[in-house]
Design a protein that fits this description.
DNA polymerase, domain 1, two-stranded antiparallel ribbon, 335 residues, 34% helix, HAD_sf, seven-stranded mixed β-sheet, Rossmann fold, alpha/beta, 13% strand
Length: 335
């Protein structure tokens, strides 16, 4: 049961489980116990991994809008924003199926930029030998690596700085290609993730580099193993980081399936960032209940009763599952 009264001091809702199979079957209801209140904060993490797109930064306008603005206003290409909006995801999926992982390993593409060039040619039905067409491609490819295209959420810098000051290691775990490095540089975020001047970043893990993508366990395993060797035992020869280490690894992202569920299924702790309160956790829909997140409680019951508006709290569903509405709440969790 959830206690009805709150102490004056800020309290967090946590779930305690001693079942050994919680990591391997984290969403089975029989593997969970009772939600209780506690004033204890989470222990200092081994590291916190962050998703990028939608978590740390987002487009200033939708991607189709930006494609339209540049193609129409700078190059006079007559393709409506409605057409771009409808066709972009189709062409993107087509490219990913034909040339997965942004074309890595395919003779046709020496680098990921060439993969995007091919996508733009297909989207606008361009003549790949026309100089104007190639100029548009290069303009768009460059544009989407700069702060012209993206904005950083206002809760990002204070959070990264605060966690860094607390001595918590920060890394990136993203389904991105190598252009993410240039984006992070442009947005002045690269410095938080252990990068040298030559773009060698020991704290940035991309699906393009590893060949594995979220939500696969292999994606998270690679990060955890790298960090375990760096922090605990550089001579470790195992294929997977020990479970004890995984139990204090955290991943933050805006995707329920790729970030939140992917991390927990890999034995990590998952934090869903839900800035718009759009997930089931902040509605009366109880869809995730069959995955053991809510037990018998309604999502709205987990929100601070002292607050007049329900969408004003973080939700700690379990000792390895948290939903937050702004990144600065991480400073409360790991204070």
């Amino acid at each position: 049961m959830i206690r009805s009264s709150f102490a004056a001091r800020r309290q967090f809702i946590r779930m305690v489980s001693t079942k050994s199979n919680l990591i391997s079957r984290p969403f089975d209801i029989e593997n969970t116990q009772i939600i209780r209140e506690t004033v204890n904060k989470f222990p200092r993490p081994n590291f916190i991994s962050f998703d990028l797109f939608g978590t740390l930064y987002d487009p200033k306008k939708s991607v189709p809008e930006q494609y339209y603005d540049i193609a129409h206003h700078e190059f006079g290409i007559d393709k409506s924003i409605e057409e771009i909006n409808a066709e972009f995801p189709i062409v993107y999926d087509e490219m990913m199926k034909q040339y997965p992982n942004y074309g890595k390993g395919f003779d046709k593409f020496d680098n990921c930029d060439q993969w995007w060039l091919e996508l733009i040619i297909r989207l606008f039905k361009l003549d790949r030998h026309d100089e104007k067409a190639l100029a548009l491609c290069h303009r768009l490819i460059h544009h989407f690596t700069t702060d012209e295209a993206y904005f950083v959420y206002d809760d990002v810098i204070p959070t990264l700085q605060g966690l860094e000051e607390r001595g918590i290691k920060l890394v990136v775990g993203s389904n991105s290609d190598l252009r993410a490095l240039t984006i992070l540089e442009s947005l002045k975020l690269k410095k938080y993730f252990h990068c040298s001047e030559h773009f060698h970043c020991s704290g940035i893990f991309l699906s393009y580099s590893s060949g594995d993508a979220k939500p696969t366990k292999e994606f998270f395993d690679r990060i955890a193993l790298t960090e375990y060797k760096a922090q605990i035992n550089e001579h470790f020869r195992g294929k997977h980081a020990p479970g004890q280490f995984l139990a204090n690894c955290w991943h933050v992202g805006d995707s329920y399936s790729n970030d939140f569920i992917g991390a927990v299924r890999a034995g990590w702790n998952g934090i869903l960032i839900d800035r718009n309160y759009s997930s089931d956790f902040f509605s009366k829909v109880k869809k995730p209940q069959n995955e053991g997140c809510f037990l018998d409680a309604k999502p709205e019951d987990l929100i601070d009763k002292d607050k007049k508006k329900k969408n004003k709290d973080m939700i700690i569903l379990a000792n390895n599952r948290v939903v937050i509405t702004k990144l600065t709440q991480l400073l409360d969790l790991f204070g």
